[in-house]
Amino acid sequence: MEVIYEDNHIIVVNKKPGEIVQGDKTGDTPLSEIIKLYLKEKYNKPGNVFCGVVHRIDRPVGGLVVFAKTSKALSRLNDMLRKGEIHKTYWALVEGHPEKSEATLRNFLVSDGRINKTFIAREGERDAKESLLKYSTISNGDRYSLLEINLLTGRKHQIRAQLSGIGHPIKGDLKYGAKRSNHDGGISLLARHIEFVHPVSKEHIALDAPLPDEFQKFL
Fold first, then answer.
1. Which of 3, 66, 68, 130 is buried most deeply by CB count within 10 Å?
2. Count of alpha carbons within 13 Å of 36, Cβ hemisphere only?
3. How would you class 127 by CB atoms within 10 Å of its CB: exposed for 0-12, middle for 13-18, buried for 19 or more?
């Protein structure tokens, strides 16, 4: 586990593709439990250790995830998340080259929990939720483009579904139309940057995830 930032109230880790943030039906050990063990050993804590999940990113996605080490921090971070005060920026390698170097995508999305997939729907369709994101192109390669993405709404699989919807699925994302898988089973989507005011100290926090090799090639 790679710790990017830690203080008395929060811990931010760099999640690897394939890891899960919170326990699910697979029964695999989630990051929340790994962090509890890390804190227990590092600080020689007796009994149960607190680790609150603030937000999640999809299993095949890598990058920054924030956890709370105290209930006070968790409560305040959850409130900040609801108010849109935690700003996350993603980087993605997508197939092809988008026609527009930057754009705002607006779709209505419906998630099907039975198959764990999100679909673009018509406005007004049952359970369809308006979904907005902004992207800009950082660079283009022969077959792929590196995009920076800012979410304006937080829907399940939103980035994956919306980029696929304009004909540029994320590299390795077979579920959303990519031509081939990545060797590590993940997808080339990275929670690259996170920025917020610390819930207790009120310090400005701005953190970047380390760039995997395949992203560095595009810089």
1. 66
2. 15
3. exposed
Residue pair 187/170 in contact by the 8 Å Cβ criterion: yes
**What does pTM read for this prediction?**
0.95
Q: How far apart are CA 12 and CA 34, in angstroms?
A: 13
Contact assessment for residue 9 and residue 198, using Cβ atoms and an 8 Å cutoff: yes
- Closest CA relative to residue 191, chosen from 5, 29, 14: 14
DSSP-derived 3-state class of residue 80: helix
Q: For 132, which DSSP code?
A: E
Element (H, E) at 210: none
Torsion of CA 42, 45, 46, 50, to 10 degrees: -110
Q: CA 35: distance to chain centroid?
A: 18
Give pLDDT tens digits along the chain (219 positions). Answer: 899 999 999 999 999 999 999 988 888 999 999 999 999 999 998 889 999 999 999 999 999 999 999 999 999 999 999 999 999 999 999 999 999 999 999 999 999 999 999 999 999 999 999 999 999 999 999 999 999 999 999 999 999 999 999 999 999 999 999 999 999 999 999 999 999 999 999 999 999 999 999 999 999
- Is residue 164 classed as helix, strand or coil in its secondary structure? helix
